[in-house]
Specification:
This protein is an alpha/beta fold and 288 residues long. The chain has one domain: Alpha-Beta Barrel (TIM Barrel). Helices cover 48% and strands 16% of the residues. The strands form 2 sheets. The chain has an 8-stranded parallel β-sheet. The chain is globular. It binds 1,3-dihydroxyacetonephosphate. The site of 1,3-dihydroxyacetonephosphate has 15 residues, from strand 3, strand 10 and helix 10.
Length: 288
């Protein structure tokens, strides 16, 4: 089963009113949890890597795990699976991922002035499209910490609708990430989502919207955002917690055992269960 880009899976999700989950992996075990969750839930899925994770393991290692996991069942058990590079400011790393076999990339030049963001994002589309790689791009500033991108509350700002329309018309991204009031990391209070802004941008740009900052949002918030045009939902922090808590909880319950494979398996099961739950919530379960 070859990896796909995000185009067909997001356009089907947008048309049918559900969202595809994009889950940030950390290593082989978490990649395996995403792929097996997709198989069990019969869901399309996006395996997402932060730039830091790519630098930590190297692109060659990650693509080999993912290809092995995705291609390991015959006949194929999975539906569509994309490998997507999350928030990346570095055009060399984007190129390396495209050349290594990622099927989708995100250019995050949202911290630059708007005109510069336009130019850089367009450059990435020009680099990616001939290789059939999809591109996500962002405007506005999403509060919180994602990878090495830190946005303080006072720096955060929503995407401007007029800029969003111009950006999508000129850049033609396959997926668009306007800041709409969600946050990366753990929410400190009730998030104030700009639903009107989201609806206006989704309708006027007609580009599938990526909902960033998925961890910690209430079920009704996900559902409303999906109904207004979010076809991709990003989940990262939830996996970081499951990765560590799954490991630690097993060890605490069996603290004389020292059987690493059992600990790894407990971590895998915790990751997978949380991912399947989200696939059901986003409506992607059963849609592969
Ligand atoms: P969370 O870490 O809040 O789940 O956000 C993930 C995200 O948006 C990655 O780009």
């Amino acid at each position: 089963m070859p990896l796909e880009n995000m185009k067909a899976m997001l356009s089907k999700a947008a048309t049918e009113g559900y969202a595809v989950g994009a889950f940030n992996i950390l290593d082989y075990n978490s990649a395996k949890a995403v792929v097996q969750a997709a198989q069990e839930a019969n869901a399309p899925v996006i395996i997402q890597t932060s730039a830091k994770t790519v630098i930590f393991w190297g692109a060659a290692a990650i693509i080999s795990w993912v290809r092995q996991l995705v291609g390991s069942s015959s006949p194929p058990k999975s539906g569509p699976i994309a490998l997507h590079l999350d928030h990346c400011k570095d055009l060399d790393l984007i190129k390396e991922c495209i050349d290594s076999g990622w099927t989708s990339v995100m250019i995050d030049a949202s911290a630059k002035p708007f005109e510069e963001n336009l130019v850089l994002s367009r450059q990435v589309v020009q680099m990616a499209r001939p290789k059939d790689v999809t591109v996500e791009a962002e405007i506005g500033a999403i509060v919180g910490v994602e990878d090495d991108i830190h946005v303080k509350e006072q720096q955060a700002h929503l995407a401007d609708s007029e800029q969003a329309i111009r950006f999508c018309a000129e850049v033609k991204p396959d997926c668009f990430a306007p800041a709409i009031g969600t946050a990366h990391g753990v929410y400190k209070g009730e998030p104030r989502i700009a639903y009107d802004r989201l609806e206006e941008i989704a309708t006027k740009t007609a580009v599938p919207i990526a909902l960033h900052g998925g961890t910690g949002l209430a079920d009704n918030v996900f559902k409303k955002c999906i109904s207004l045009g979010c076809a991709k939902v990003n989940i990262s922090t939830q996996l970081k917690y499951a990765f560590i808590d799954g490991f630690v909880a097993y060890h605490e319950a069996h603290n004389t055992q020292y059987n690493p494979l059992k600990v790894i398996d407990a971590q895998f099961n915790k990751l997978k269960a949380g991912i399947i739950e989200k696939m059901k919530l986003f409506g992607s379960a059963g849609k592969a």
